[in-house]
Amino acid sequence: MDKDKALVVFSGGQDSTTCLFWAKRQFKEVYALSFVYGQKHVKEVELARNIAAKAEVHFDVMDVSFIGSLSSGCSLTDSSVTMDKVKPEGGVPNTFVPGRNLFFLSIAAVYAREHGINHIVTGVSQTDFSGYPDCRDAFIKSLNVTLNLAMEEQFVIHTPLMWIDKCETWALADELGVLELVRNETLTCYNGVQGDGCGHCPACKLRREGLEKYLQKKGLQSAEAKL
Ligand code: ZN
Questions:
Q1: Strand order across the 117-121 sheet
Q2: Which of the residues 87, 135, 177, 225 has an alpha carbon 20 to 30 A from that of 202?
């Protein structure tokens, strides 16, 4: 396998876009793989395609729409369901798509194998833990072992955002020189609004608070540097 190639599981959101540029810095050749999984905002795939073109990486889309139809009650795939604004006591918010990362990463691994890639990058993070069990480090490590056993390969799943928060994710995007691109061209909003988003859904709130914290910190640093 070629150690110079990496595959990024790519949604076109803030986290995976930051990971895409992180991967570009680490690896010679980068592939981005997006998924159509029955999400309400299919527009995100088009935005992902545009970002991948700008980043000059290979881009592919897999249709796994069956994931959305497997389970009911998810507000990201079922338009009759109203989104949970806060995490319910002792459960997962209804923005959780059961099995999503399990399916995505398993399919990504088969795709990677087919293209002679053994590095797989995903933007999951345990820090701003919203109750999604498949964003946790233990799950990723366990799946990495399983995929290696399943295909007799040596995949390495990279999670550059696992232990950093949204503020630090913005700092990383800035360090990679893509803060403006991430800010304006990605889609994180649960209501499908590009860039700074609708401003009030849980994803927008988390993203905005992180950005404000980072810009404030950066402003303070540059003010201190001038003194
Ligand atoms: Zn929003």
A1: 58-63, 29-36, 2-9, 117-121, 156-158
A2: 177
